[in-house]
Amino acid sequence: MECRPGCGACCVVPSISSAIPGMPDGKPAGERCIQLDTHNRCQIFGLPERPEVCLRFSATVDVCGRSDPEAYELLRWLEEDTLPKGDSVSTQGQ
Q1: How far apart are CA 87 and CA 46, in angstroms?
Q2: pLDDT digits (tens, 9 = 90+) for 79-92
Q3: Domain spans of the chain?
Q4: Residue range 40-62, pLDDT digits in tens
Q5: Torsion angle of the four alpha carbons 52, 50, 41, 89, in this order, in degrees rounded to the nearest 10
């Protein structure tokens, strides 16, 4: 499957521990990536500055669902499932 233009769930929901231009310490789960523009498109897509984790991400129905809201829910569930007990994912970036 190809990414749905304007979704941006993968740039908001998961934490990214590696440096991102403008976010040298990465980003916590639920925080909108600084490289996500107002149309929810990655401003560094295809550039060498893009973090490896972003390069390796593949949109699949299992992860992205069939709609943007479903992508946010599935990614939130996956992120929360890997967090230490008692932590939760913010929804501030949605």
Answers
A1: 33
A2: 988 877 666 666 54
A3: 9-81
A4: 999 999 999 999 999 999 999 99
A5: 50
